[in-house]
Structure formats: structure tokens, C-alpha cells
Amino acid sequence: MSKSKLITVKGIGIATLMVNGEDFISLTDIARNKNPDEPKDVVKNWLRSKTTIEFIGLWEQLNNPDFKGVEFDAFLFEAGSNAFTLSPSKWIEKTNAIGLVSKQGNNGGTFAHKDIAFEFASWVSAGFKLYLIKEFQRLKDDENDRLKLEWNLQRTLAKVNYQIHTDAIKENLIPQELSKQQTSFVYANEADLLNMALFGMTAKQWRDANPKATGNIRDAATLEQLVVLSNLESINAVLIHQGLPQSERLIQLNKIAITQMKSLLNSKSMKKLK
């Protein structure tokens, strides 16, 4: 569960959360549009409706393989009667629901998956729902713009590291007497050193194995591989300046690539960038 972000809808602050990669919106905050003093009562009243139980039950059946159908049927049978009451925490506990989340502490309350939250907003006020959708979309657009900026910064960093890498090759591995064709061979040779350390093959080997693919081995790289490649270029530049032979650099770079890939593949931050 990530830190909440706030959007403002008709002067009301509404918190949003990321739960297991899905967007959740505060029902408690939405309910303030109907009853600013007792928003919890608004949520409980909504949960008393048979239509509501049918909707959130169907959502769970479509999205939650561990949803307890027997308990759901019991709630559905009782829903709508004068004596029927249901709290979000009871619904979650009895049915193993994942579409609602109860958050304790500051900025707590009941959160719902956006599909359910928009349905609740319609029940509160159709007009309020439209404003909510508009502001929520604005938040997602801002997040996408930020991710694009981070991606562009990563691309820029990769270019800077590439320049550092090629400068190190030029200063330490290429005698002045070599022709342009000869120097390009050295650059390509060092590029394939990184390819071997990270991908386990040279650029030519990749092309031979993927004859119908467009681009090259690095064009087909994942985000994690591009990050590691950028780091390897900087590290290889340092190793070149230290005078390490290529065979020793390959061993070290391969070990670093394995360690960093394992770390990045388990990184929640990297998963959010995708």
C-alpha cells in the first residue's frame, strides 16, 4: 500500500492509494459531499442496499479468486431488510474481499478500488461523480507525465555514461596511429564486452538469433537492463582507467550485472515505472 495522494473535488480533499498496483479512492472522503460530519454513516447506508451488495459481490467474483461466495450469498439474502447493517470491515473479514480496504490512523477510512469508488460516487451524486472522474484523470495524467520525465532522464543518463565510456576507451585503449575503421572496431569490441556481461551474447549473435527483429540488442532491452547497462558503462570506464585487462573486466562486470538485475527485478519503484 503506497502513500496516499490527494485530489480536490468541489472543495473536498479526496485521498487516493495504490494497493497492489491498483488505484483505490477514499469512500470516506467522497461521503463528505453528502454528510461532512458523519461520512462513515453514509458508507454504511450504501452497503445496506441490495444493489450495492450485488455490485461489489460481482466485482469480487470477477477479480478475486479467494472471494467467499457462501458468505456473500448470506449478505445478499439479508440486504435491503430493515434490520440489515453492514460495515466495510465486516464485509472484508467475512468474504475475504479485496475491493474495499479499511485504513487505520491519520488519513484513514474506507478505500475502494476505483471501479467501486465511482459507483459509490454515483450513489452520492451523479454530478459529483463526473467531477471526481475529471480530477482523478488529471492525477493519472500528471503521474504519467512524471514517469515520462523519469524515463527521459534515464535515457539522458545512459547517453552521458556512454560518452564517459567512449572517452575512457579513446584515452586508454586507442593509439593515435589507428585509422577510423580500426578505432571503430575497438569501440564495438568494448560495446560487446558490455553486451556479454549483461545479455550473455554479442550484438552479432543476437542479430543471428533474431533475424526478423527490428533494431539491435539494446533496442530490445527491458527497462531494468537499460538501467544496468548505463551503470556498466560508467563502471567499465573506471576499470579501463585502472588498467584492468578486458578478461578481468568482463568477469567483474558480469557479476555486477547479475547483482543489479536481481535487485531491480525485485524493486517496487521499477515496477511502477512500467
Automatic annotation (TrEMBL):
Residue intervals of the KilA-N domain: 5-139
The UniProt record lists the keyword S-adenosyl-L-methionine: no
Cross-referenced SMART domains: KilA-N (SM01252)
Signal peptide segment: none
Entries under InterPro entries matching the protein: KilA/APSES_HTH, KilA_N
GO MF terms held by the record: DNA binding
Protein name, UniProt field: KilA, /APSES-type HTH DNA-binding domain protein
